[in-house]
Design goal:
The complex is a heterodimer of chains A (112) and B (114). Chain A is mainly β and 112 residues long. Chain A contains no helices and eleven strands. Chain A is 0% helix and 51% strand. In chain A, strand 7 and strand 8 form a beta hairpin. Chain B has one domain: Sandwich (Immunoglobulin-like), CATH 2.60.40. Classes of the chains: A mainly beta (112), B mainly beta (114).
Amino acid sequence: AAGVIQSPRHLIKEKRETATLKCYPIPRHDTVYWYQQGPGQDPQFLISFYEKMQSDKGSIPDRFSAQQFSDYHSELNMSSLELGDSALYFCASSLAGIDTQYFGPGTRLTVL
Amino acid sequence: AQSVTQLDSQVPVFEEAPVELRCNYSSSVSVYLFWYVQYPNQGLQLLLKYLSGSTLVKGINGFEAEFNKSQTSFHLRKPSVHISDTAEYFCAVSDRHNTDKLIFGTGTRLQVFP
């Protein structure tokens, strides 16, 4: 079965640069979630979208923004990168009304 | 608000032994409960979930968990582990009425030795 696709899988950036992470949900899933997992930590919820509208917001820095497009894929834009932004970024998707989130393999962002 | 406590950061066990990974949660509202597994350098895979109904939930790879409302626990068990079960295990909760946000515990590292 098709799973959540994230690209790129690995990304290396310098401080103060910008990064864009992409997420392609499971076909027919209309809800997308973003999580950040720091080294040795549990995943932390950043933001979610349902039908292209932001549905909930967690501990997402103001330097980060995200959106969901008409084909339901989502992009997480990160500006003015800091060393502390180095983490594994997960995208998950679900179908509205179905309460299980399915996670992608993650994008490992390293900020040097 | 919800919170999740995984009491054991690491659980070492020999192959074919039984294992229990503990999870307790705190919430002022009704919750859904999940266990996810993360293998090295991989994403999170759903092991099992409790939404309603029978409090004993069976998942993939021979794992099961029991929801205990009075003790606010959702412990994960497997009667006989394999080397391949070595991974990080995360317990998570979400509000039944706002399922957008999964709140994760800090994880338990299961290390299976031959």
